[in-house]
Structure formats: C-alpha cells, structure tokens
Amino acid sequence: MSESIDNLRRLFEEDLAAIDGMESWKAVRDKYLARESGVITTELKKLRDLPKEARPAFGQAMNQLRALVEKKLQERLDEAKAAEASTKLQRIDVTRPGFPFALGSIHPIKRLQSEIEQIFVSMGFQIFNLPEIERDYYNFEGLNMPRNHPARDAQDTFYFDDSVLLRTHCSSVQVHAMEELKPPIRAISTGKVYRRDPFDATHSPMFYQVDVIVIEEGITMGDLKGMLDVFLKRMFHSDIRMRLRPGFFPFVEPGAEVDISCIFCSGKGCPTCKQSGWVEILGAGMVHPKVLRMSGIDDSRYSGFAWGMGIDRVAILKHGVDDIRLFFENDLRFLRQF
C-alpha cells in the first residue's frame, strides 16, 4: 500500500517537473485533483474496499499526498506568475514619453461659493451647514410667512409632506442661528436651494444662495449698508456703486432691493442693465421684530439685519455668461474656461 502511494508521489514529481506553461499546469492539476476523475480521488475511493484496520493509515497517507500535491502546484503557479510579470516589465520602454491626462478643477459656482464664505469668515462670521431637506417651520413659519403666503404654494415648492420640504432659500439660517446662538450673532449659510421654476436662460429649479444674518444691540440700516458696501467691493471691484430701493420680504421690516452699478458699462447703460446703468443683485432688510420674538430674541433690546443673494446670479455677472444653464450642463468646453 505504501509502495503504491510512493509511486504516485514519484509520478507527480515527474509531471510537475514537465510543466512548461499554464496549460500543462492545469492538465497536471486536473489529473491529480479533479473532483471525479483525479488520481487521488480515484485512489481514495478504494478506501471502502480495504480491511477496517488498514483504512486509517491509508486515508492519512492519501491526505498527506493530496496536501503535498496542492502545495507543490501552488508554488509552481506563483513562480509562473512572477516570471510572467517580470517578462511584462522587461517589455516596458521607460524612455517613451508619458501619456497626457486631464486634470479636474473646481466648478466655477463652487469656487465662488468658497470665495464668498472666506470673505465672511474674515469678517468674523460663523458658517452654518444646514440641511437641504428642511422643516416647514424653519423655511416658512419661523420667517413670518403665514399658511396662506404665496411662497408656500405647492406650485412653487417641492414638498415631501405637510411639514417637510426641499428648502426654497437659505434664509432658514436666521431661525437656526437665533435658536442656537446668543447675541451678538453673525452667521451665514450657503448652498443649494430648490423651487418649481422653469429651466431656462435665467431660471433653474436648483440654484445656489448665500444668506446672512447679524443680531446685536443698536444695529441699524446704516450697518447693513456699510457691510454690503464692503462685501460687494470685495466681490466685484472697488469702484462698484450700490443703491437701495424699497422692497418687501416677510421676514424683514423695512426691506430693500439692492442694486449695483453695471459691471459691464460702469453705469453708463448697456443691454445687460437695460440701459439703466444698474443691476439688481440681492434683497435685504432689518430683521422683523416678530421673527426675533419667535426665535426667543428680545426685540426691545436687540435688532439686526439679514440679506440673501443668488450665487449663480453673481457668477453670471462676474463671468459675463448669458445663460445659467451652461453652469449645470457639464459641458467641458465651457467649464475649462474657468
């Protein structure tokens, strides 16, 4: 019995030495280890025909032979793979020039968003990263927008249910900041907002905004105007002029529409500004006393201002783009210009 196993071992060693490639390696593997027809499997089937006292020694010897075959075949496979890899490396011409590849870059809207945030961080503001899926209270009710307000219409807002929606502006930072911080408060939030707007040259159902709130004792419209003047000059250029017009927003009183002198014609009049010399840029105002009270701020002691602006709108003006859709269509011919 042991002589038969020794003969099998010698035959395997001869077959192993004759392997000269993957095909012959597979042939040897199948010859000895195939599940049904392998030599070792066939020999093990003889186990049931042996006397009971001879079975343990035979089974142990055959299992040792199987382990040896598996080990030797694996070693030979590893050697073959290493030799193949070495051959491939030798075929590489290290003197050839490298292949060019394109480098990505930050999207112009995201770059502008970061630039705006850095301006306000340098002015002592805290950035709030707020959820895009927002509760109705923070998006509308806490900002003095009653249930019958047109902005809450389902035709303008993406609702999940009666109390959860995709935020329509970043003005919710006002309520979040006043709930989480004690005055003095300087906070901003930037990010994507959603409205049921048509997708055309000047509108998009998804766009970017920045909203700002300041709450302190003795804050006036003069402080609002001064901060806006500093921000707009840093955002565009030092010669930019600004004007405030009366405007209405439910969460501020008084409210104002803010225009800047046209950056294309320097206020002389052109098609972009419709010959007026001015371009509307943002909405602003003093935080409504009711909004202060709903957020737990003493409106007899504190006052503040808030304003919001479309980042996409700034990108259009800064880069002279006439169609907002270009920023979202992922056309590399357009994006590589920035």
List the total number of helices: 11
Query: How widely separated are the two ends?
Result: 81 Å
Largest sheet: 7 strands, mixed
Q: Class of the largest domain, according to the CATH hierarchy?
A: Alpha Beta
**CATH homologous superfamily of the largest domain, by name?**
Bira Bifunctional Protein, Domain 2
Structural class: alpha+beta
Question: Would you report the number of β strands?
Answer: 9
Report the helical percentage. Answer: 25-40%
The CATH topology name of the largest domain reads: BirA Bifunctional Protein, domain 2
Order of helices and strands: HHHHHEEHEHEEHEEEHEHH
Unreliable spans: none
The percent range for strand residues is 15-25%
Strand arrangement within the widest β-sheet reads 1-4-5-9-8-7-6
Radius of gyration: 38 Å
Summarize the structure in words.
The protein has 338 residues and is of the alpha+beta class. The chain has two domains: 2-90; 108-335, Bira Bifunctional Protein, Domain 2 (BirA Bifunctional Protein, domain 2), CATH 3.30.930. It is 39% helix and 19% strand. The strands form two sheets. The protein has a seven-stranded mixed beta sheet, with helices on both faces. A two-stranded antiparallel sheet has the order 2-3. Helix 1 (2-17) runs parallel beside helix 4 (55-90), helix 2 runs antiparallel to helix 4 and helix 5 (108-122) packs across helix 10 (311-319). The protein is elongated, with a radius of gyration of 38 Å.
